[in-house]
Design a protein that fits this description.
With 335 residues, the protein is mainly beta. It has one domain: 5 Propeller (Tachylectin-2, Chain A). Helix content is 5%, strand content 40%. The strands form five sheets. Strands 7-11-10-9-8 form a five-stranded mixed sheet, with no helix packed on it. The protein is globular. The two termini are 27 Å apart.
Length: 335
């Protein structure tokens, strides 16, 4: 295993310290190896589902265990669909794959996870990870995702790709790269269709060969636009003040785009931020519900806001214990 890649997975964190990167970067093309599940990793976390009332009342309504980096959308038939990274405890074949869940009652109940199928993946390409769902006007749904080829990230930087589906489970790979920047770590995109134009956002994760955790792109995100959702043109970077990252998802109501990002919110106790934009370029922070977590997504349901977000490490897991461990110079044995 490439040590630099492993470090990237363990140390690409949210503002509150919990890892949200996918360990898919660790796997050989096509998968097959059993992950070190007794080590800290995203499998120590869950996706949490919250319902936020118009008056701000917020309550957790569901937990998707051993999951992360969620995205949520509404399908043509009215159902909600959530895609997330899936880390089942006793299923190596499905481990670290993208799975989807459906809700026919606006988020009150959810189906069991089903791992997606992707036809036509190029040889040597890793299975999709870090999913983003975008419903299309013709009723289909497009999956934007991160992938890469080869073992060494510095030599084969990840980029954003896409696949198309009629039902949200069975996808067909769409040829070509949707977005990439030479020498940069391009992962974890957000895409939204707004007034006939696709807007794609990616947090500034630094150079592909740089040591993780030392990125200088806090508050800065890549921005690209496309008329067909396939060929994107890079625009000027987007910016937001404070300790915030463009790691999350975006939603449009036809007039305004709302971005749900990772980092300090306007309300104390919040682990994510919200901002609005009319053109996808200039952004203004707005109040957020006091929900902790990272890489959030959201969708409206019966006038409420359904938020899906990666929670912190579960108590007692290796990731939680690692956070509690004192630094070496504070240990009594002096080692």
């Amino acid at each position: 295993m490439n040590r630099r890649v492993a470090l990237f997975v363990l140390f690409l964190t949210t503002a509150w310290g919990a890892p949200v990167a996918s360990p898919a970067l660790l796997q050989e093309p096509g998968g097959g190896g059993r992950p070190e599940r007794n080590q800290p990793g995203p499998w120590d976390q869950d996706v949490l589902v919250y319902r936020v009332k118009p008056d701000g009342e917020t309550g957790k309504v569901a937990t998707f265990e051993r999951a992360g980096v969620p995205t949520i959308a509404r399908m043509k038939d009215g159902r909600l669909i959530v895609a997330h990274q899936h880390f089942p405890e006793k299923d190596d074949v499905a481990f670290d794959k993208v799975a989807v869940r459906f809700s026919a009652d606006n988020g009150k109940s959810w189906s069991e996870p089903a791992v997606i199928e992707v036809k036509g993946l190029p040889e040597g390409m890793r299975f999709p990870f870090d999913p983003t769902l975008v419903p299309l006007p013709d009723g289909k749904i497009r999956l934007y995702f991160t992938s890469t080829r080869g073992r060494i990230i510095a030599d084969n930087p990840p980029a954003i790709y896409s696949a198309i589906s009629d039902d949200g489970i069975r996808y067909t790979f769409e040829d070509g790269v949707r977005f990439g920047v030479e020498g940069k770590m391009i992962i974890d995109c957000a895409v939204v269709l707004h007034n006939g134009l696709f807007h794609l956002y990616v947090p500034d994760n630094g150079d592909a060969g740089s040591m993780p955790g030392k990125q200088s792109g806090e508050g800065v995100g890549y921005h690209a636009v496309s008329k067909d959702g396939l060929t994107f043109t890079r625009e000027k970077e987007v910016r937001i003040e404070g300790r915030r990252r463009w790691l999350g998802n975006a939603r449009s109501d036809g007039k305004t785009i709302v971005f749900y990002g990772t980092g300090e919110g306007m309300e104390k106790g919040g682990g994510f931020w919200m901002a609005t934009s009319a053109d996808g370029k200039e952004w203004k922070l707005v109040p957020n519900p006091p929900i902790r977590g990272g890489d959030p997504g959201a969708e409206m349901a019966d006038g409420d806001l359904i938020v899906v977000i990666t929670g912190g490490p579960r108590p007692g897991t290796p990731s939680a214990n690692q956070k509690r461990r004192p630094p070496p110079d504070n240990r009594r044995d002096g080692r």
